Amino acid sequence: SAELCLLPALAALLPPLRGPGGHGPAEVGLGAFPAQLRAAVRDLVSDLDGLFTALGLREESFAVGALSRVIAAELASYAPARNRRRMANNKASIVFVDRTLDLAGAVGHHGDNLAEKILSVLPKLPGHKTDVMVNMVELTALQTTDETCSIIAPGCLAQPNDPAAKALWESFMNLKQKEAVMEARRHLVEAASRENLPIKMSMGEVTPEQLSSYIQLFRNNLKALENHCGLLQLVLATVQTLKHPQTSKWDNFLAFERLLLQTIGESEMPSVLNQLLPMIKSYNERTKDDYTCEDFLVLLVYMYSVVGEIRSGKELDAAEEEVKKALVKTICDEPEPSPLLQKIT
User: Fold this and answer.
1) Domain containing 311: what range?
2) Are 198 and 217 a contacting pair, CB within 8 Å?
3) How many domains are contained in the chain?
């Protein structure tokens, strides 16, 4: 979007994590890192220099975290960057932040943002880190219940050639979910009116079913489909996200996280872990509203990120051991472990 640029090629670049009982990376230079991490840092510095060259920037760097300090220092001493800074006309402040300093932000469910939900719940577009597959079957005469229907190519979120779709995507990123969904309806109604499709405008809350019924109007009109294909892909992504079981679970996550923040303030970590224990259920015991193994891993990352310093002791060791046992049993009972669980095991 106009305000956000992602560099997905570097998505795997993470600061080294602390070992058990050890300390984080001290004030070290690039030479102290493993070869793979050194190469990734040099790639990032080179990519950033290319980006700043294109923007004509002379940067002043600030860093939060050990790896960020190394990257800022490498960028400062990078020979092509020194030349660029001498020639550049525009000034900018660049802030580097270690990703591991905000794990609670990355796994939390506090955002009331449609773009975040679409990117979280729809399957990734093959070969992409930042785009998703949108099922396009609804726009065709093919009626199939097969979720993985691969005859029809998937749609996606990147619609650089469709001004209406680009404007709608900005709304998804910048507005609250309710407002963004209303924007989706407004764009659809305008597109249908331009194509003289028999649309009945309704007021009140926007439902996925209502958006679907509007989309159906375009189905048998090839010219209208072609003219508004980008917009339709974004609205279909909205419908599929709102109907997705993971979206209804989003509110459960949010409620649990809020409860957790209150509980952690009042009691110690062992009692919080003991509260979590009965919720860890094996595949055969789970309903669609229960948490899966991945959900628990996300919750645990959130818990340990927000709790700060933890007082260790026998009680904590016992509670952690029980949670570990329950998680291991649940992972072993999965009939088809997800790619993430396979990677972990």
Assistant:
1) 266-344
2) yes
3) 3
The answer to whether position 202 is within a domain reads yes
Q: List pLDDT tens digits, range 62-95.
A: 999 999 999 999 999 999 999 999 989 999 999 9
pTM of the full predicted structure? 0.81
106 part of a folded domain: no
pLDDT in tens, 230-240: 999 999 999 99
Q: Read off the DSSP letter of residue 134.
A: B
Q: Amino acid identity, residue 240?
A: Q
